[in-house]
From TrEMBL:
Belongs to the WRKY group II-b family. It is found in: Nucleus. SUPFAM superfamilies: WRKY DNA-binding domain. Gene3D superfamilies: WRKY domain. Its main location: nucleus. It holds the Pfam family WRKY. This is WRKY transcription factor 72A.
Length: 458
DNA sequence: CGCTTTTGACCTGCGC
DNA sequence: GCGCAGGTCAAAAGCG
């Protein structure tokens, strides 16, 4: 209830924020975030199934956000355009085999678009969106759970720090690339720019990051209408809070993304997720909710979990999108080393827990604490959806095309488990070896070694 | 030996 | 057309 009060206050304070709960009482909303790609072989099936699912959701006034393989950008095109244009190279196994071919296709499409509708071009699935992540990191690169191969390095103009180019090597045909460059103003800040979508199964850790970047990219593409207007080409609209309008049929719902900016100065639309703690305003916002060390970014979607549980808890607030810590992690990381466990002070949700327990350093939470926290979450449909998204990103293949329902069943089961004083179900096992600290990692990758045994032990 | 990194050359897009 | 800058290629070198 305190959390809801804060949310309500924030909603009043900001003219462009997430829909209030009052809205939701009038129109029960379901925001289904399908995070992560669990099986590349299902891509086409999923794409085909999306309309069916959405059709079934229409009755619930639901909002289905197709992310990653369920990216629904082509739906924004007319049927003729969709059939005339090639499928998104980011979502098609066949289309990404030849990078050069892809370039030629894009070029051909751009030529074909001469004199055409600019909006159509902007929303073209072939136009890659980039997601730039700013993270405070002392290591050469950020450990995002994927395997990368460096294929180039350049000194970019205006920045003495070289820009490194990496290519995903998990799958030979994976089109995903990233650029890593130090911020010229603050070399402790690492700017990682992701481009493309993985066309192969990802580890949980990689899925977390990939889902986030993909979500931002898909929102950027699907919400391209906001990129127009006075702040269009060759400008960067640095938005303290950014509204993403995710259109589903005739309905649009805003998403509020602070510390974000959209740039269309380059040939690619780029969204920047600032995960550094530089935003004092956001910090102060969070400070009202709990004690956040300045080191940790006052951010958004948070893939952290309870201390006593491996199950990730995703907090989705109107204050933020994504919260990654920046502590080093093992280079061995590899794609399987992951613990959804972050700094205990990182999240709004955990802050709330801390208020309850008055003991932030507590390693295990009492069942009633979990129950209270779960109650707080389940009262908020947005929280519930975000939690479902996190579960889907882990469980992934366990769901069907109607993953939302399936995941929500899991959520319901989680509720029941809590009600019966049972901790959250433990998912998977995580390697405990963390050595060779050379890379920093998202916060949710932390602590895989020392605490995994106790986690699994309950 | 296989994989990764380095680095100069090359390609492409864009502005003048 | 030219130059610049970003991005990519690929041979050579490095590394385990």
């Amino acid at each position: 209830m305190q959390y809801r009060d804060v949310i309500a206050q924030e909603a009043k304070r900001s003219p462009t924020t997430v829909p209030t709960h009052q809205d939701q009482t009038e129109e029960p909303e379901l925001i289904a975030l399908s995070l992560g790609r669990t099986s590349s072989g299902k891509i086409r099936d999923e794409r085909n199934k999306v309309p069916t699912v959405e059709k079934s959701d229409e009755g619930n006034e639901g909002l289905a956000l197709g992310l990653d393989c369920k990216l629904d950008v082509p739906k924004m095109l007319s049927q003729a355009e969709t059939t005339s244009l090639n499928p998104s190279p980011e979502n098609s196994l066949e289309e990404v085999k030849e990078e050069g071919e892809e370039k030629r296709k894009n070029k051909a499409m751009n030529n074909a678009g001469d004199g055409g509708d600019d909006e159509v071009l902007q929303q073209s699935p072939a136009k890659r969106a980039r997601v730039s992540v700013r993270v405070r990191c002392d290591t050469p690169t950020m450990n995002d759970g994927c395997q990368w191969r460096k294929y180039g390095q350049k000194i970019a103009k205006g920045n003495p720090c070289p820009r490194a180019y990496y290519r995903c090597t998990v799958a030979s045909s994976c089109p995903v690339r990233k650029q890593v460059q130090r911020c010229v103003e603050d070399t402790s800040i690492l700017i990682t720019t992701y481009e493309g979508t993985h066309n192969h199964p990802l580890s949980v850790s990689a899925t977390a990051m990939a889902s986030t970047t993909s979500a931002a990219a898909s929102m950027l593409l699907s919400g391209s209408s906001m990129s127009g207007g006075p702040s269009s080409s060759s400008t960067t609209s640095n938005l303290n809070g950014l509204n993403f309008y995710l259109s589903e049929n005739s309905r649009s719902r805003p998403f509020y993304l602070p510390n974000s900016s959209i740039s269309s100065s380059s040939s690619y639309p780029t969204i920047t997720l600032d995960l550094t703690a530089s935003s004092s305003s956001s910090s102060s916002q969070l400070s009202r909710l709990g004690n956040f060390p300045p080191r940790y970014p006052p951010t958004n979607l948070n893939f952290s979990s309870l201390q006593s549980s491996v199950l990730p808890i995703v907090s989705w607030s109107n204050n933020a999108i994504l919260s990654y810590g920046t502590q080093p992690c093992s280079k061995n990381q590899s794609t399987t080393s992951l613990s959804f466990q972050a700094n205990p002070n990182e999240t709004l949700y955990q802050s709330y827990l801390q208020k309850i327990t008055m003991n932030p350093n507590q390693q295990t939470l009492a069942p009633d604490t979990i129950a209270a926290a779960t109650k707080a979450i389940t009262l908020d449909p947005s929280f519930q959806s975000a939690l479902a998204a996190a579960l889907s990103s882990i469980i992934g293949s366990g769901g069907t095309n109607n993953s939302t329902t399936g995941v929500q069943n899991v959520v319901e089961k989680s509720k029941k488990s809590v009600k019966s004083s049972d901790p959250f179900p433990t998912l998977s096992s995580f390697p405990s070896s963390t050595t060779n600290v050379k890379k920093c990692s998202p916060g949710f990758l932390e602590k895989s070694s020392s605490s995994s045994s106790s986690q699994l032990g309950g």
